[in-house]
Design brief:
Order of helices and strands of chain A: HHHHHEEHHHHHHHHHHH
Number of domains of chain A: 1
Radius of gyration of chain A: 20 Å
Largest interface: A-B, 62 and 62 residues
CATH superfamily of chain A: Farnesyl Diphosphate Synthase
Number of helices of chain A: 16
Helix content of chain A: 55-70%
Oligomer: homodimer
CATH architecture of chain A: Orthogonal Bundle
């Protein structure tokens, strides 16, 4: 048996991620800036941009950008295979979508860490934005990052058709807003000290974390030209890993320490917040995470898409991560 | 002389505003809601939406929506006049643009009033959002209102072409972000107790207030089909009234009382913030406002647009208002 062939065909998630992350990091570095774009009189004030860059650069696992890239690759290679006369989708759209989702995620962490919310001083092993720059700057940096996400999605570029720009904005706005991430955080706030059923907990997490993770997958798909069948499968995949992410987060909050997490561990229990562990217990939570992983992988298998190795690998990583 | 004819041809800004405001208020009432749109599983949590509605509904002069409508009418009637075979632009786009700009304005007030920013307890004669709902809810309501603005601009509607959606998002995102409103607020924060030159003060106000007012005008124009000449003129008009608004705001902060303003008067002086009055004095500030009004009206006169009565009236109102 020729093991070399087997090795070459095996998918290396680490290498795949590193390749894409390199592009994402450089793009974020370039786009979160005080420089005025061509044709515009003025840039942003340096002090605000410094806080924005601190919030975004040099940290984070970049799960959301990787989901965008993986979904984009899956639908693109599929269509290219189906019809080689179609032009390849410009990478620009996927890169912008990946960065836009990450900016929304980054802004939500900045605001979530503020004293009036979770009051956290440590994030990715560093002082949180409001600790370093003050509360007012943290508030404004978060606000500006949200606006920047939509600015990134709507460039005056010929290679990025308006239909795609509008669809990306639509997916991101809905996932970020009151029926998505912000709504989930509001339910989270209102749930301190409250006993929730598993179904209520699921609804909360679907909005708080799931909506943006699912949107990452759908935005990646929107950068290609996915069939309705593929889109439906990716939506199911996104919902499953979106929820699995939070179940595992709840588990890690109990089982990992702060140094490993890069943020304060045991926070949820301390703040008397309902979690999967408090509702289901550790063992059943872990089993539930594996069940959601199975749902995500089954959706991919039924999607009709062929190049789903990165999406499979990311689903595995979400569920089996240790931090 | 037949005075009736003269009366009919005179432009009644009050009646014009009332007609448009009726539509804007009803649209805001409908769109800031917990209801899930068709085809979506879930809406937003009621407690968050209550804070968002409080921030948006039943208050505010709605200057920005009126600027959108006035600019849209100016470019639309012009093009219709130029080529009657063109279909009238759907009102839907202008209405959505008007509401989106107002949501951004409303969110900025919610965040601006928070204790870590201006720490204000009174707005439009009512308790501010954080006083009524708590700081965390105010933070999240503001965040969700920003996302909703971009959601409003990107509906799945045949009558609103993707090109228009993308352009509206682009204009709004840039005006709201770090090189616009949020950037201006950051400069404002950093300027407490600092002595600014008139030029530095102008730059700050151009971002803080001017960018969104100018974007309102440009977004209205983007809902029609303005010529490059008309767009350039409207940009100049928007810049002039954007700055004039803030000059007059600085004057009123000194000359009006809290009851008239519906917010705390004398705040800027109390907080040792540089203003036009502190830099130029009252008399020169008032003269500067009139000069900016002249620039705005001159730009309209040179625009090649014929139906600019509402834009003229709004410019007059901005400069000659008493609250």
């Amino acid at each position: 048996m020729d093991t070399r062939v087997k090795t070459e065909s095996a998918f290396d998630l680490g290498a795949w991620s590193a390749r894409h992350l390199d592009g994402v990091e450089r793009a974020l570095e370039r786009w979160v800036t005080a420089e005025a774009p061509a044709g515009v009189d003025h840039g942003a004030p340096a002090e605000l941009v410094e806080a924005m860059r601190y919030a975004v650069l040099d940290g984070g696992k970049r799960l959301r950008p990787l989901l965008v890239m993986a979904a984009w690759e899956a639908v693109t290679s599929d269509r290219v295979g189906a019809d080689a006369t179609r032009p390849a989708v410009p990478h620009e759209a996927a890169l912008r979508a990946a960065c836009a989702v990450e900016l929304i995620h980054a802004y939500s962490l900045v605001h979530d860490d503020m004293p009036c919310m979770d009051n956290d001083v440590l994030r990715r092993g560093k002082p949180t934005v409001h600790v370093k720059f003050g509360e007012a700057s943290a508030l404004l940096a978060g606000d500006a990052l949200q606006a920047l996400a939509f600015e990134l999605l709507t460039p005056e570029l010929e290679g990025m058709p308006a239909e795609r720009q509008a669809r990306l904005c639509r997916l991101l706005a809905r996932a970020a807003g009151s029926a998505g991430m912000a709504g989930g955080q509001a339910i989270d706030l209102a749930s301190v000290g409250v006993s929730l059923t598993e179904s209520q907990l699921r609804d909360m997490h679907r909005l708080k974390t799931g909506a943006l993770l699912q949107a990452s997958v759908m935005m990646g798909a929107a950068c290609g030209d996915a069939s309705a069948e593929a889109q439906a499968a990716l939506k199911t995949y996104g919902a499953a890993i979106g929820l699995a992410f939070q179940v595992v987060d709840d588990i890690l909050d109990v089982t990992a320490d702060s140094a490993t997490l890069g943020k304060t561990a045991g926070k949820d229990a301390d703040q008397d917040k309902p979690t999967y562990v408090s509702v289901l217990g550790l063992e059943r939570s872990a089993a539930h995470a594996q069940e959601l992983l199975g749902q995500a992988l089954a959706a991919l298998a039924q999607s009709g898409l062929r190049n789903t190795q990165a999406l499979q690998g990311l689903a595995n990583m979400v569920v089996n991560r240790s931090c």
